[in-house]
Specification:
The protein is mainly alpha-helical and 419 residues long. Helix content is 82%, strand content 0%. The longest helix is centred in the N-terminal third of the chain and has 32 residues.
Amino acid sequence: MKKNQPPLFRQDFTLVVIGQIISLFGNAILRFALPLYLLRQTGSPALFGVVGAAAFVPAVLCSPIGGVVADRVNKRNIMAALDFSTAGLMLAFTLLLGQVPLVPLMVACLMLLYGIAGAYQPAVQASIPLLAGGERLTQANAVINMVGTLSSLLGPVIGGVLFGAFGIRPILWVSIGCFAFSAVMELFIRIPHQPQAASGGVLATVRQDLGDGWRFIRREKPVFLSVMLVLALFNLALSSALNVGIPVAVVQVLGMSDARLGITEAGMGLGGLLGGVLAACLGERLKLRRGSTILLAGCLATAGMGAALLPWTAPGFGYWLLTAMSFAIMILSTMLVVVLTAAVQRQTPPNLLGKVMAFIMAVSNCASPLGQAVYGALYEACAAWAVLLSAAAASLLIALYSRRVFRELDADAGEALPR
């Protein structure tokens, strides 16, 4: 007979959720508005892709460091400090906009923004098992993902309205307020923290901690290496194609307005929200061994996006088909991320969780800068429909390879003891 589980929405977990809603909303409107502003000002998909690639590099590099810090420093303090830092960054960007050249300013801002996000997320992921363990873990991860997608849903809608009506500056001021308010709220969160002995100086401690995390993955959980490879290849072949391709397709190929792009990205947020709801409702019944099937469905949806851009497709119909396929992809990807994250958390000791999650995030995202740069050039040189269909075909091969990997990880997760 199962023992009663404590309620999920206790005070501290609720504060984390609210803080994430506010902070991620600020991130969502920025990630919508800043690249769109650059694309509108320059009209170059290649530059758009290169800037997006440069922005991803700090996220990849900062993620392992964030994992080390998350396992050694109170996670509440990390989240609050980084939100305060982001508010300061956007204040500086707002004051410099129009005073210095746009492209280097945008590159610097996005690199810092993504770097902070890369260091921030390991603290959030490592705090979830401490606030909601046991059989609540999948539901807790689903809630955190739903928060992110809810912010992604509202961010583009509000960002598109503000950007179309007033330009970029109101969006910047709203984001500053979001980060500052979230940081103040996070100061009141209580997250259990067990100090760890340092291994000498700062560099020696970081080197030792990263080595511990890597040895655990390589010796105890080599299946994590295969998972990282699958995710990195998918980011290279598919995610990068969509990150660059959706704004280019809506704004340049189909000739739609900024508000229409906001609707499409809001639809993606709604899809992610629905995927989180489904994952929360299914709970432990959502099995990771079906991950390859989810990826295959994502490939088919991407092929549908390519069909929406064929020359003989009416722009209005193509726009709604592309939006519908984006919505479906987000449902699928969110469900996969939720169940994959819970499986890794169950199989990782608490003192290594921040580092292990950071390694997985860093390696998985390391292909994104290259993918963004390559797809930016491809969208400028080739027809968008051909690029998307090629991305779907490449991703199909990766999905077929992933079948064995997800089955092995699912089997190991079933053997792991509940927290």
